[in-house]
From TrEMBL:
Signal peptide positions on this chain: 1-36
Protein name: Autotransporter-associated beta strand protein
Positions of the Phosphatidic acid phosphatase type 2/haloperoxidase domain: 190-329
Keyword flag Signal: yes
Signal listed as a keyword: yes
Pfam name, any one: PAP2
Species annotation: Streptomyces luteogriseus
SUPFAM superfamilies xref list: Acid phosphatase/Vanadium-dependent haloperoxidase, Pectin lyase-like
InterPro entries: Autotrns_rpt, PAP2/HPO, PAP2/HPO_sf, Pectin_lyase_fold/virulence, TAT_signal
Top-rank lineage group of the source organism: Bacteria
Keywords on record: Signal
Length: 638
């Protein structure tokens, strides 16, 4: 069975609406009316005096059901702004009608318009172990992972209609010896990775305390106004019929809980489990970080398609999983395990694929055959699901990144310091004003999909060092966000950093060593550019808004194309010092030919000369031609 992160813990609710834990009466009873008091009055965002989540995450147990006692309930406190828990499971009160009405309308629309294939997919991911389902995010590495981890499932297809009874994931009868459900067997080539996933999904990762605390019903039990109306009738399967426009997938009708009092919707346990497992896998296999994040969002969305959860439930599950994963990875008790799991995954995959730490990323992104090959499609899938139906209200408040959150990027951006990873999280975060995301410490504002692509802004000068000898992302990485801010970038070290965004940072760019690739015309922002060492490479054309200075043992690498404008346009002056080299790359599609003069550099003022001009051709050489507009080259035969 899936771990406790996706399923209810033992508990009972008596007919007065009081919750009694499995510890019995001696543990004390917490009256549901008390929930209404603290949920209605508590403002988790403004709360003070609480320990940081990462220091208090082990308080998330079924005996702790208030924000004062439970760190998860605290970070989910934004829900208390839209919903007031009642004195029973079906007596809660709507506080924000706009949000909750939009929530229910969205769920009704999705479930009424889903296809048969979508219903079957929703069944598959409802019943399959969530950790196993997340393995699909590994793409071309998924099959290798399943074999190496001995990970199996018995849920591989969906029934045509409603099955005769409840279905659970069990160990298949024909499973190889030593196999295990979920992330796999600890006694396997990837046992440490499986153990890391299970540790992240450990005893303090359950969504059940939150469910009991907030008592927000499943969508199929509510009408448009989030009111529970039992029609007094039962369906053909014997379940009560509620006045709801949400349609549960036929394959899941018998999977519903008969005990409404113990079957709260917020937060979604499956969503919590998907993101917990996904982020644990992403730590161990950061080559697929962004794709695993995307898959967690997609699988979580099937909870809405199934009719089993609403958008606020799914948002709550993601928020708590983000915080819980960071807390578990930041816990000193797990330091050795997380490091060993990452090392084990890297060694296993490089050995099985014949790659190295530097080439595994390319193997893991083959393009064809990878469901998550299209980054832009992934971004379109994730973007709307960060907020779903939530309107944005209020002013823009800067985010103080929660303590310990930087560990989530520890293997994806290993060449950055912890402080720099916090800046990445801060500058890629969602704005404030989304009510469910603005709870205590605002974990819901973190956008890990965007953070995997580096900084969103240089609010102060950033110096980054990539050491190619360290391998992997230290050797080469790409920052794909559109970077803003008043700060600038200094690139050091022997590795390669690629900037792909339409960047608007103003503080300038300095290249001291290694390679800096400008993969878009505006990759280098709006300031000056100074190259004192290494190679500045432009993928096609490049625009420098300020001045361009090149000196020392350094190379400017530009692409030349027939019947095209200059490869480099500089808004102000160009200064070329001793040791500077110009390396010209002939465009593969439309290369200029011998006898033509091709513009290279356009500027209003050019001082100095390149020490050497090279061209990547065995038959052509480039002769510099200085003009009033800058620099051209005449291509002649060798």
């Amino acid at each position: 069975m899936p771990s406790s992160a996706g399923h209810r813990s033992p508990a009972t609710v008596d007919r007065r609406g009081f919750l009694k834990t499995s510890l019995g009466a001696s543990a004390g009873l917490l009256a549901a009316p008390a929930f209404a008091t603290w949920l209605g009055a508590a403002d988790a965002k403004a709360a003070t005096g609480f320990a940081a989540f990462v220091d208090d995450y082990k308080s998330n147990v079924i005996t702790n059901l208030t924000p004062e006692t439970n760190a998860v309930v605290r970070v989910l406190g934004g829900m208390s702004k839209v919903w007031k828990t009642g004195d029973g499971w079906n007596t809660g009160r709507v506080l924000d009608r706009e949000v909750l009405r939009a929530n229910m309308r969205y769920c009704a629309h999705v479930t009424q318009t889903r296809t048969e294939a979508q219903a079957k997919e929703a069944f598959l991911y409802d019943r399959q172990h969530q950790s196993y389902a997340m393995i699909g995010g590994l793409g071309p590495l998924a099959g290798l992972y399943k074999a190496g981890a001995k990970a199996v499932t018995s849920i591989t297809t969906a029934p045509e209609g409603t099955p005769a009874g409840k279905i659970n994931d069990t160990l298949p009868a024909d499973a190889p010896a030593g196999s295990a459900l979920g992330a796999g067997s600890y006694d396997s080539d990837l046992g440490l990775v499986a153990k890391l996933v299970d540790t992240v999904r450990g005893p303090f990762a359950s969504g059940n305390p939150g469910k009991f605390a907030f008592q927000y019903p499943r969508p199929w039990r509510m009408n448009e106004d989030s009111e529970v109306v039992d029609t007094g009738t039962k369906d053909a399967l014997g379940y009560p019929v509620y006045d709801s426009d949400v349609v549960v997938a036929p394959q899941l009708l018998r999977q519903r809980s008969e005990n409404a009092q113990e079957d709260g919707g917020f937060p979604s346990g499956h969503t919590n489990a998907f993101h917990l497992a996904g982020l644990a896998f992403a730590y161990a296999v950061p080559e697929r970080f962004q794709e695993l994040v995307t898959r967690a969002f997609e699988l979580s969305h099937t909870r809405i398609v199934a009719g089993m959860h609403s958008t606020v439930d799914v948002l709550g599950g993601r928020i708590m999983a983000t915080a819980l994963t960071a807390a578990t990875l930041a816990d000193p008790a797990n330091a050795e395990l997380k490091t060993a799991a990452r090392a084990q995954a890297l060694a296993y995959f490089t050995q099985r694929t014949g790659t190295t730490a530097d080439t595994l990323y390319d193997y893991a992104h083959p393009g064809a055959g990878d469901a998550y090959a299209d980054r832009e499609a992934n971004a379109r899938a994730v973007g709307p699901r960060l907020t779903y139906v939530l309107p944005r209200r209020g002013r823009k408040d800067p985010l103080t990144v929660p303590k310990g959150a930087e560990v989530l990027l520890e293997t994806r951006l290993p060449y950055l310091t912890a402080a720099q990873r916090r800046e990445v999280l801060r500058t890629t975060a969602l704005p404030s004003g989304y009510v469910l995301l603005d709870g205590f410490e605002q974990w819901g504002r973190l956008n890990l999909f965007a953070a995997a692509d580096g900084y969103g802004a240089f609010d102060r000068d950033v110096t980054v060092t990539l050491d190619a000898a360290a391998g992997g992302f230290h050797t080469a990485d790409s920052w794909r966000n559109d970077i803003e801010g008043d700060g600038g970038l200094t690139k050091r070290g022997s590795g390669t950093l690629t900037l792909t965004g339409h960047n608007r940072y103003h503080g300038g760019t300095v290249l001291e060593a290694g390679t800096l690739v400008a993969a878009s015309p505006n990759a280098l922002g709006e300031g000056d550019v100074r190259v004192t060492g290494g190679t500045l490479r432009a993928a096609k054309v490049l625009r420098v808004r300020g001045s361009y200075v090149q000196e020392g043992e350094s190379t400017l690498e530009l692409a030349l194309r027939r019947n095209h404008g200059p490869a480099l346009t500089v808004g102000r002056r160009v200064l070329l010092g001793r040791g500077s080299v110009l390396s010209l790359r002939l465009d593969a599609e439309r290369p200029p030919v011998a006898g033509t003069t091709v513009p290279v550099l356009s500027t209003g003022q050019l001082r100095g000369r390149f020490d050497r001009v090279e061209v990547d051709s065995e038959t052509l050489r480039a002769v510099p031609v200085h003009t009033a507009d800058g620099l051209s080259v005449r291509l002649v035969r060798r």
